[in-house]
Amino acid sequence: MSRKDRKNKHSEAAASAAVPAQAPDPRWEIAGAAARVILGGVFLLSGLHKAFAAPEEFAAVIEQYRLLPPQRILAFATAVPWIEIFVGLSLVAGYWVRATAAVAGGLFVMFLAALGSTLVRGIPLENCGCFGGGIHLTAAQAMGLDSILLCLAYCAYRFGSSYAPLDAWIDRGA
């Protein structure tokens, strides 16, 4: 390679490095914001249904999964609805969008693993417990819904912070 070729190659690399990153398409930003709000609404609906019922009702459903030791089931049944409510409120309000979308994705992976384990082990579930006593889904239906919601969580993580009202308001004040 001649000296001139090396110089041209170096100039091309410097020019490409100076090009700013392309802004995401506004349609993806709107889709991300919609995914964030839909996901937050689902978490709020799910968490509120369970939070305002007796924790023993949700604990009875969790017990059917046969994944937790009996002494931990009631604590889990008490905590999960409030985690869902916090995640839902954060997503709807646009607060800590990327972090809460990541938590939502993690929860859906956990839910899918728990549901999948019941199918593999042949444990019949009349109610997945996803929405407390409000809506009853079979394990297969819940896995389908959770898969869709996991995709929405990714979309909210990737694009949902563009129209995050609470994060933008806090950033302006700082």
Radius of gyration: 22 Å
> What can be said about the biggest beta sheet?
none
What is the N-to-C order of secondary-structure elements (H for helix, E for strand)?
HHHHHHH
Instruction: Report the principal-axis shape.
Output: globular
Number of helical elements = 7
Which structural class should the secondary elements be placed in?
mainly alpha
Span between termini? 53 Å
How many domains comprise the coordinates? 1
* Quaternary structure annotation: single chain
State mean pLDDT (0 to 100 scale).
86
Low-confidence stretches: 13-17
Question: Helix proportion of residues, in percent?
Answer: over 70%
Count of beta strands: 0
Strand content: under 5%
Summarize the structure.
The protein is mostly helical.
Characterise the protein shown here.
By secondary structure, the protein is mainly α. The chain has one domain. Helices cover 76% and strands 0% of the residues. The chain contains seven helices and no strands. The termini are far apart. Mean pLDDT is 86; it is low at 13-17.
